[in-house]
């Protein structure tokens, strides 16, 4: 009877150990799936950040190009105004000389 009780006790412990192992394996499996999902989400997030960074860099480059074009246009306008001012000054001087010669 003592041997039989010990055998039953060992069978119970073995059954509980097997059950605990099965639960642990199921938990490990679930954790692996959650880890895969988290890794996938992390990669998606990193790809999104990379795309946003590239988009912002492109927008910045576009803004720099537009600024450069505006600066060039302004420089052209200022040169044209200076040239026009010189032409007006020369014309005024000629008119003054012509008027002086008339008097």
Q: Give the DSSP E fraction (strand runs of 2 or more residues).
A: under 5%
Question: Which stretches are low in confidence, meaning pLDDT under 50 for 5 or more residues running?
Answer: none
Q: Number of DSSP strands?
A: 0
The percentage helix is over 70%
The count of helical stretches stands at 1
Largest sheet: none
Average pLDDT metric:
95
* Rg for CA atoms: 44 Å
End-to-end gap: 150 Å
Task: Summarize the helix and strand pattern as letters.
Answer: H
Structural class label = mainly alpha
Shape: rod-shaped
Task: Explain what you see.
This protein has 1 helix and no strands. It has 103 residues and is mainly α. The chain has one helix at residues 2-102.
List the keywords:
103 residues
List the topology elements.
Elements: H1 2-102
Give a short summary of the structure.
With 103 residues, the chain is an all-alpha fold.
